[in-house]
């Protein structure tokens, strides 16, 4: 592919910003050219010019090219660029491994590390953390332990960055003891090290040990405070959350967006609308933008604490909305009996080309239940499967069963199914439910079209 690119006409001549003289095109010119590339097409043109100018072996340029490909999500092209290098420097190997991991290709990152070792290239202290991050991405603790062993043999096991990454691996893979050993053997423990330890212990369910590590920290930053606050939120202890926040304020540590999101979750647990409004006001007074995370948390808090008006006001003020934001608002409207408004918002979502997911349809089907609109629920259910290829969840069937039951109050079998499903917390399999619904439809004298069985 690259050979073909090198023989293409020079699409860069006479173009802005990619206009350079064909004469005396050197490494500095190539660097400037790469920085000016606004899209992948221009990047390939720049690469062709580099090849024609004999610069394809310049590893600094190659690394810039790989980074640029990665930023455009073109790791296949980056791979071709990399493999044309005869003897990649360790820095170049590391960059390629890192970009694979950052682009969600952890398997390729580990395979490239294996190739690096097999070809006799010596890793350095930066190689191992990148590979361990790839192991975290795949949750492959055995490979992580192998890499840990290699780092020890290479003399890099005492590197703080590597040790922090190894702790993260062990805790995320559920090996609390190995994570503890790494922490205890560290000659120097940074704030990041202690925060990683706290997060790991919380993830493993040891909140008391996490609190002990937190209290022993000589210096605490916003990340460590937020990590501990998050631990209490996850463990359903909202009062501890606000006790910590008060201490955080006394220590003059400014919260970040994630701190406030956790405080709003604690407000929701307490059911305190007054406290939630105080957090909202605090955010506005301290210059926090109404971003996706904070805005969605506010919508959820206001809805759960009983103020749908405030939730909708926040939603309307948000400049950028994620799918989670739309789902939160639609579900809130549906749960509060505003079915028509929920369906209207769903229509706006579709018009805005936001692709719904299974959670979205739980929200709109719940809205149909509150509206007692069997026909609309059926239409949405069919669209969910046929237009969006979403596999129905038990929650979707629960909504349909509720509406069927209302339409056929004498049907004791379906009343039993509905009650059983509620008692089992919606754990009846989708296949079982669908079979029963299909059987019911076939004998329901046309309440629904016969195509429902095929939907």
TrEMBL record:
- Residue runs in coiled coils: none
Q: Is the keyword Nucleotide-binding in the record?
A: no
Q: Which residues form the signal peptide?
A: none
Gene3D superfamilies associated with the record: Tetratricopeptide repeat domain (1.25.40.10)
Where are the bilayer-spanning segments? none
* UniProt cross-references to PROSITE patterns, sorted A to Z: PPR (PS51375)
Note the InterPro entries from the entry.
Answer: PPR_At4g14850-like_plant, PPR_rpt, TPR-like_helical_dom_sf
Q: Name one GO biological process term.
A: RNA modification
Q: Which UniProt keywords apply?
A: Repeat
Q: Where are the PPR repeats?
A: 89-123, 159-193, 221-255, 322-356
What name is this protein filed under?
Answer: Pentatricopeptide repeat-containing protein At3g26630, chloroplastic-like
Question: What's the source species for this entry?
Answer: Rhodamnia argentea
Instruction: Give this protein's Gene Ontology molecular function annotations.
Output: RNA binding
Instruction: Tell me the superkingdom of the source.
Output: Eukaryota
């Amino acid at each position: 592919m690259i050979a073909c690119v090198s023989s293409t006409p020079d699409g860069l001549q006479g173009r802005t910003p990619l206009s350079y003289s064909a004469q005396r095109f050197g490494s500095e010119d190539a660097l400037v050219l790469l920085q000016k590339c606004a899209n992948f097409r221009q990047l390939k043109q720049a690469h062709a010019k580099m090849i024609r100018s004999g610069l394809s072996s310049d590893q600094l340029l190659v690394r810039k090219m790989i980074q640029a490909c990665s930023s455009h999500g073109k790791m296949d092209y980056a791979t071709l660029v990399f493999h044309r290098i005869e003897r990649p420097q360790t820095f170049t190997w590391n960059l390629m491994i890192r970009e694979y991991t950052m682009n969600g290709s952890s398997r390729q990152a580990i395979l490239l590390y294996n190739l690096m070792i097999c070809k006799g290239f010596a890793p350095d202290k930066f190689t191992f953390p990148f590979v361990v991050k790839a192991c975290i991405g795949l949750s492959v603790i055995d490979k992580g332990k192998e890499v840990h062993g290699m780092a020890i043999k290479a003399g890099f096991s005492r590197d703080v960055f590597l040790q922090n990454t190894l702790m993260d691996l062990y805790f995320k893979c559920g090996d609390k003891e190995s994570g503890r050993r790494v922490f205890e053997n560290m000659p120097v423990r940074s704030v990041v090290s202690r925060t990683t330890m706290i997060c790991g212990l919380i993830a493993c369910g040891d909140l008391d040990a996490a609190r002990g590590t937190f209290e022993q920290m000589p210096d605490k930053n916003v990340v460590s405070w937020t990590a501990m606050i998050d631990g209490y939120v996850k463990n359903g202890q909202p009062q501890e959350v606000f006790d910590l926040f008060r201490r955080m304020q006394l220590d003059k540590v400014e919260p970040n967006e994630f701190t406030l999101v956790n405080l709003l979750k604690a407000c929701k647990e307490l059911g305190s609308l007054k406290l939630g409004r105080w957090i909202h006001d605090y955010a506005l007074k301290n210059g926090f933008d109404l971003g996706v995370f904070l805005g969605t948390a506010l919508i959820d808090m206001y809805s759960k604490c009983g103020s749908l008006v405030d939730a909708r006001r926040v939603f309307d003020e948000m400049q950028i909305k994620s799918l989670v934001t739309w789902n939160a608002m639609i579900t809130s409207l549906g749960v509060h009996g505003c079915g028509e408004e929920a369906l209207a918002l769903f229509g706006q979502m579709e018009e805005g080309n936001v692709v719904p997911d299974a959670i979205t349809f739980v929200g709109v089907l719940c809205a149909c239940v509150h509206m007692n609109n069997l026909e609309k629920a059926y239409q949405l259910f069919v669209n969910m499967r046929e237009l969006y290829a979403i596999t129905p969840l038990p929650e979707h069937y629960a909504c349909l069963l509720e509406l069927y039951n209302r339409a056929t109050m004498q049907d004791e079998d379906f009343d039993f199914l509905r009650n059983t499903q509620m008692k089992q917390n919606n754990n009846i399999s989708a296949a079982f439910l669908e079979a029963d619904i299909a059987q019911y439809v076939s004998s329901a004298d046309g309440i629904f079209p016969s195509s429902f069985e095929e939907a």
